[in-house]
Amino acid sequence: MADWVTGKVTNIEFWTDTLFSLTVHAPVHPFTAGQFTKLGLEIDGERVQRAYSYVNAPGNPELEFYLVTVPDGKLSPRLAALKPGDEVQVVSEAAGFFVLEEVPACDNLWMLATGTALGPYLSILQEGRDLDRFNNLVLVHAVRYAADLSYLPLMRELEQRYGGKLLIQTVVSRESVAGSLTGRVPALIDSGALESAVGLTMTAENSHVMLCGNPQMVRDTQQLLKETRQMTKHLRRRPGHMTAEHYW
Ligand SMILES: Cc1cc2nc3c(=O)[nH]c(=O)nc-3n(C[C@H](O)[C@H](O)[C@H](O)COP(=O)(O)OP(=O)(O)OC[C@H]3O[C@@H](n4cnc5c(N)ncnc54)[C@H](O)[C@@H]3O)c2cc1C
Ligand SMILES: NC(=O)c1ccc[n+]([C@@H]2O[C@H](COP(=O)([O-])OP(=O)(O)OC[C@H]3O[C@@H](n4cnc5c(N)ncnc54)[C@H](OP(=O)(O)O)[C@@H]3O)[C@@H](O)[C@H]2O)c1
């Protein structure tokens, strides 16, 4: 049984009509960067709960979540309507294996996200632990429109902080904008456009690929990497090159 605690919303910031970040104070147990918890609200007499990844680094008491309002969604529109001071239920014990401990050492660590699934990487990178095992870090944020790149300023700050070790690349699928690749992640890998934009290669010999977010993106990319780059899913009992988390 999950152990629920009562949290208090301290801030809600809207980046677009549908994308927002929720900051909560709650007496949760320590978590590992990359993990998620559950948020819950009482709706029509019953608790509706969903999984959300921590964006903040472990140890930071400002618990931050990055969300999209799913049209007709059961919980996300209700979370979007919260105001500072409102209560939200939080599961105190975080969960999930989308953490660096599960990723073997390599030259190039690719962190691929669609939409709100940028969160786990921001937590990992803000904490900055256990990254000496990689020579290069590449953070790729893929969204529909440039306006959905909510955390670009933080991504740029992190790029500075890592002094050349961290490369960031944005991908926009529904418009063409300077500085971003246009299209979808699997096609941009297949054509070589992502690697040339970043200046690094993605091979089974030199890379590990983390994938998070839209399950179709995750599946399509894994399939492509399997077929064209001989990459395999990473399992504890059989080390491979890909680690993934599906958001639905
Ligand atoms: C491990 C894990 C971590 C997650 N972390 C986050 C997070 O940090 N931020 C976040 O916004 N969501 C996250 N989700 C998704 C979240 O749990 C809910 O599914 C989402 O908020 C929709 O809930 P809902 O009740 O409003 O919609 P529902 O009525 O449950 O509708 C679900 C449908 O909404 C769509 N959908 C769900 N999540 C997303 C999303 N993130 N982006 C685009 N479309 C989506 C899909 O089409 C899905 O079938 C995570 C899910 C998992 C499994
Ligand atoms: N983002 C918005 O402006 C917006 C506005 C209103 C409502 N919403 C709602 O919010 C929810 C989530 O939207 P979202 O934009 O955050 O998430 P999303 O639909 O998962 O899209 C995020 C990115 O993933 C890409 N993608 C989708 N399938 C893929 C695949 N198989 N392979 C590779 N890439 C793939 C999308 O490309 P494509 O563009 O090619 O699909 C887009 O660039 C949806 O329910 C949507 O209706 C979003």
TrEMBL record:
Residues 2-101 form the FAD-binding FR-type domain. GO terms for biological process: cellular response to oxidative stress; heme catabolic process. CDD domains: FNR1. Its cofactor is FAD. GO terms for molecular function: ferredoxin-NADP+ reductase activity; nucleotide binding. It comes from the Bacteria. Its EC number is 1.18.1.2, 1.19.1.1. Pfam families: FAD_binding_6 (PF00970), NAD_binding_1 (PF00175). It is found in: Cytoplasm. The keyword Nucleotide-binding applies. Keywords: Cytoplasm, FAD, Flavoprotein, NADP, Nucleotide-binding, Oxidoreductase. InterPro entries: Cbr1-like_FAD-bd_dom (IPR008333), FAD-bd_FR_type (IPR017927), FNR_bac (IPR033892), FNR_nucleotide-bd (IPR039261), FNR_type-1 (IPR051930), OxRdtase_FAD/NAD-bd (IPR001433), Riboflavin_synthase-like_b-brl (IPR017938). GO terms for cellular component: cytoplasm. Belongs to the ferredoxin--NADP reductase type 1 family. This is Flavodoxin/ferredoxin--NADP reductase. It comes from Enterobacter lignolyticus (strain SCF1).
